[in-house]
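Late entry, written up from scratch paper. The run itself happened at the end of the previous shift, but nothing got recorded in the book at the time, so transcribing now.
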Amino acid sequence: MTILDGKKVSNQIKEEITQQVAEMKARGEKVPHLAAVLVGNDGASLTYVGSKVRACERIGFESTLVKMPETTSEEELLKKIEELNQNDDIDGFIVQLPLPKQIDTQKVLLAVDPDKDVDGFHPMNFGRMALEMETFIPATPFGILEMLERYEVETSGKHTVVIGRSHIVGRPMSILMGRKGFPGNSTVTLTHSRTKNIKEMTLQADIIITALGVPGFLKADMVKEGVVVIDVGITRVPDVTRDRGYRITGDVDFENVSKKSSFITPVPGGVGPMTIAMLLKNTLLARARHKAAKA
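Output as recorded:
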């Protein structure tokens, strides 16, 4: 059994990007600039955006954090997005989700310039991904592909079962694993909360990607020997034995499922660190695109 170490791979990617940024600086070129828009004071969002800003500093990117109050109106946020769209100095930006209830998330995501949409959430980018055209792939699915590639996990001709159909992970993964090329060329089954007999599906799977958000959902009796397991779930579970009062757990009963797996991601330390690394990679791609457009 091999642990798919997202922390190790994400650090490799950051080192590679750091080198590219150093070369840009040596040539006197503008370095990539990533902006993040944070509306309100959601604890998890603050932590996540903070790690993105720190990652930018570490690899030599410029970064801008736009903080807006919880009471921000939809109109005010759309105006701010338009400013970022028009700002030539910013290569890519993200709007941190979730947004306060007075704001229509779909309207906001549609307002982001597709060429600066480094989250890969705009329908234009999603459509290009589905058509196997060059585009920004959403950071978490992009990270999963990168891990499979770097660990040389065979996907061609395999049966991949995806659990969860969110637009952020489940649905894009179901498209990407069935695409031509590597990683891809697998036969994909997309399952979700309305799927009957999920266990029957998972027992047939060579690769399982679960993004359900239900702690310990995937048990050892639901998988076959030699399965590849990618656990995207991340849930805080109360734990009085820990100083902070909780522990982070995934969708997989890791202790028992790992005994039957050929490859498996841990939680934490698996898919999570890859998400930020791939956001940085998307920003690098945005910078290259903007440079080409000006040439």
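The chain has a mean pLDDT of 95.
(Scratch paper discarded after transcription.)
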